[in-house]
């Protein structure tokens, strides 16, 4: 082959490659531009967006904010410094709906738990518009496959009206989370997740770890929860009865393995209380977890001021009777009684089957977000 012929062939190959790159770039930018338009319209009238930038890496949305509706316990329902969306390049070329990743930087989420036990988050987004409702109800709408959602340095505030006389606020900070394989809005198939964060306390901060998988469509799940050195006084209302002596200080460790199959829950767990200090008894009689205060303190002293309580939450999650607070406190009271080798009057060991409410609220939140994702990245038909 002559040098001139070789040069001509090289030029032809170069021109073809440049054409392919140009065509790919055009298609990619068109796909990213489509995502930009849907992002602006999907967040709703209560939202703000500081800036949207389009690049080779996808769409970067900065200064995202969704304000709380009237009566919401926080000024903002949701905000994030950045939301970075990376579409699947080849999937858009072949007409498929796949998002490679969504990264949310420094997000904030406020959650409201009502007196009835219903969990609400981003109410304006969940209410959605006609487009999102249609996306959820119509089986003809194309689903969107999201490879991974990542949260970096997040904050969650839970405003809870179910415990005590006044609203309680639980704050989680430094949340790092990843969720893999999300099919929106159908929510079929298993989505794996890994979440860590800091549980804020008055005297000290603890750690939280949540890992496992869930399939919202079938309600099956397998989740492990670990709380490490959490300020026990901040969570007393979830652990003890209303008339029990108050905790002055103490640390709480929790290990819980929850598995749900065919609406049947089995969740064995262990609570470890350490360095516990209780307030003085009011009058002659005072109890802690249903047990005499002095008996509890004696056992704690004998065990090096560290006490382990074992329990199992199990039942039919389709049962409408459900109160998580009462369930957990009852199970812990029974375990405390077993540990102290005494009985509790009026406490049934079979109490506390989990029911429908918690599952329905969680399902509603995920479906609402799923509908929004579909409106962002769906077929647009």
Q: What is the number of independent domains?
A: 1
Strand portion? 35-45%
Secondary structure tally: strands: 16
N→C terminal distance: 54 Å
| Share in helix | 25-40%
Shape: elongated
Quickly count the helices.
8
How confident is the prediction overall: mean pLDDT?
A: 75
Task: Briefly note the structural class of the backbone.
Answer: alpha+beta
Q: Rg from C-alpha positions?
A: 26 Å
Major sheet size, sense and barrel closure: 14 strands, mixed
Q: Which segments are poorly predicted (pLDDT under 50) over 5 or more consecutive residues?
A: 128-136, 343-370, 376-381
Order of helices and strands: HEEEEHEEHHEEEEEHEEEEHEHH
Quickly describe the structure:
The strands form 2 sheets. Strands 1, 2, 3, 4, 5, 6, 7, 8, 9, 10, 11, 12, 13 and 16 form a 14-stranded mixed beta sheet that branches. This protein has a two-stranded antiparallel sheet with strand order 14-15. It has 8 helices and 16 strands. A hairpin with a 5-residue loop joins strand 5 and strand 6 (119-121).
